[in-house]
Write a structure and sequence with these properties.
elongated, 7 helices, mainly alpha
Length: 158
């Protein structure tokens, strides 16, 4: 597969997972998240989430393509891809836990696992491609913020 096709496939895969997770997120102004939950004053506006996540999923896809092109015959690449797949699944699962189950508690437990999986992905990606690992840093920072937001929402809604 040539590099351009690989890049499109990897970005498409990440965006597809992001879109799949979005089926759990509420429409602005509707439902449990907007009308029932207490949120901190520093909760980001709803319009911010879609563009931020789109950028992060594109960066994940670029990073993924950089690792894949290093060769599927290398054990470190396979290990990095397995952990990447796990963190991608956990990213999807957070939306299901927090919004689908309407549970800040389960969402928080899940996002801690997601954060750890992202850190491990960065470590493994760095063994294959420093630039791929670097591309995941904004994702780790955003999920760190999201984890703190999730924790705060959990505390405000016992």
């Amino acid at each position: 597969m040539n590099n351009a096709i690989l890049l499109v496939v990897c970005i498409g895969l990440c965006l597809l997972v992001g879109f799949a997770g979005s089926v759990f997120t509420p429409e602005p102004g509707s439902g449990w998240y907007y009308s029932v939950l207490n949120k901190p004053s520093w909760n980001p506006p709803s319009w911010l989430f879609a563009p931020v996540w789109t950028i992060l999923f594109v960066l994940m896809g670029v990073a993924l393509s950089q690792v894949v092109k290093e060769g599927l015959d290398r054990p470190v690449v396979i290990a990095a891809l397995i952990v990447f797949a796990v963190q991608l699944y956990l990213n999807f699962a957070w939306s299901a836990m927090f919004f689908g189950l309407q549970s800040p508690f389960w969402g928080y437990l899940e996002i801690v696992g997601l954060w750890l999986a992202i850190v491990l992905t960065i470590v493994l990606f760095s063994a294959v491609s420093q630039s791929a690992a670097f591309l995941l840093v904004p994702y780790l920072l955003w999920v760190s913020f999201a984890a703190y937001l999730n924790f705060t929402i959990m505390r405000l809604n016992p």
